[in-house]
Design brief:
This protein is an alpha/beta fold. About 50% of the residues lie in helices and about 15% in strands. The protein contains 10 helices and 6 strands. A 6-stranded parallel β-sheet has the order 2-1-3-4-5-6, with helices on both faces. Helix 5 links the parallel strand 5 and strand 6 (about 130). The longest helix has 15 residues, at about 185-200. The chain is globular and about 50 Å long.
């Protein structure tokens, strides 16, 4: 897609008033294009396949399907949409479940409108977006697991290390592939291998852990 073109957005949320508010924000932003809304997970999946939006804003708790189930179905399909969870839940287990299922972002509904649009702008540029207050939840979770003490001990190959550097910047597989001049499938393999070596389950966990490790080793 031409970066100059507006990013198309689909909203999947069972709260009509909230949907209406977010739609108004999107329609007021020239870098985005609202293309559809769904009040349930099943309708959201069907619309996603029909519209193939650049980005999907997905609620976590819906009456018919859990947002994680919807996320997994979308990520297991041939859709290339970025999926941003937009929820009221600030529980660590929900955050981790979403990231491990492949979410490209996790934002809280109580964000200020301008902060939400700024984060969506970051997501449109290929960055992984997480509400600022949730970063400490990730850090706390990382402390509970057994993994290499430092990047030097992780035993990453040169390509895996380069891939990890891009993950720290929150870049998508597609963007990493473009910058490293390799196939997107190869990036996925590198990510899979480095996650196994670091004993982590999601790219966001890897980015947070590696960033902390890098800062701790600086003089």
């Amino acid at each position: 897609m031409n970066p100059a073109e507006p990013q198309s957005i689909l909203i999947v949320d069972d709260h009509p008033l909230f949907r209406k508010g977010v739609i108004q924000l999107i329609q007021a932003a020239p870098e985005f294009k609202f293309v559809g809304e769904a009040p349930s997970g099943k309708e959201g999946i069907a619309l996603a396949h029909r519209l193939q939006p650049d980005m999907i804003l997905l609620d976590l708790n819906m009456k018919d399907m859990n947002g994680i189930e919807v996320l997994k179905e979308i990520k297991d399909s041939d859709l290339d949409s970025r999926v941003i969870m937009l929820t009221v839940s600030d529980h660590a287990e929900d955050l981790m479940a979403a990231l491990q299922a492949g979410a490209d972002g996790y934002l809280l509904k109580d964000m200020e409108p301008e902060d939400l649009m700024r984060q969506l702008g970051e997501a449109a540029r290929g960055k992984i977006t997480i509400s600022e207050g949730l970063t400490q939840l990730l850090v706390a979770s990382l402390r509970e697991k057994s993994r290499p003490v430092s990047l030097a001990e992780a035993g990453l190959t040169e390509q895996e290390s380069r891939t990890l550097e891009h993950l720290i910047d929150g870049k998508s597989n597609k963007l990493i592939a473009r910058e490293m001049d390799i196939a997107e499938g190869t990036v996925k393999v590198h990510v899979k291998h480095l996650l196994k070596k670091l004993n982590l389950r999601s790219r966001v966990e890897a980015a947070v852990w590696a960033d902390r490790s890098r800062r701790q080793t600086k003089p």
